[in-house]
Amino acid sequence: MTAHEIIIRPIVSERSYAEMEQNRYTFEVHKDANKYQIKDAIEEIFNVKVTRVNTLRVKPKTKRVRYVAGQTRSWKKAIVTVAEGQSIEIFGNQA
């Protein structure tokens, strides 16, 4: 897998924005990617030093549309800690 296949998209939420102040960034990643592959992909794409990678699987939630019950998709999340003094500009120069 290439780096751009491993890192799918950044996660935009209030919690992820709060963690950005502590140099922690949240991404949706490929389900089969391990922590070492995620670390290498982030370092290659954003040119930063990754100190820690935490991963978790997000379980699907049950949803209903009228009479039909279904589920949302399951996906994998990675919380990446970047070295002190470095940052990832996810959204360019907005802030």
From TrEMBL:
GO BP: any one term: translation
UniProt cross-references to SUPFAM superfamilies, sorted A to Z: Ribosomal proteins S24e, L23 and L15e
Domain of life, source organism: Bacteria
GO MF term list: rRNA binding; structural constituent of ribosome
Gene3D superfamilies from the UniProt entry: 3.30.70.330
Alphabetic keyword roster: Ribonucleoprotein, Ribosomal protein, RNA-binding, rRNA-binding
GO terms under cellular component: ribonucleoprotein complex; ribosome
Similarity comment text for this entry: Belongs to the universal ribosomal protein uL23 family.
Role played: One of the early assembly proteins it binds 23S rRNA. One of the proteins that surrounds the polypeptide exit tunnel on the outside of the ribosome. Forms the main docking site for trigger factor binding to the ribosome.
Subunit-structure text: Part of the 50S ribosomal subunit. Contacts protein L29, and trigger factor when it is bound to the ribosome.
Protein name as it appears in the record: Large ribosomal subunit protein uL23
Taxonomic source organism: Collinsella ihumii
Name of encoding gene: rplW
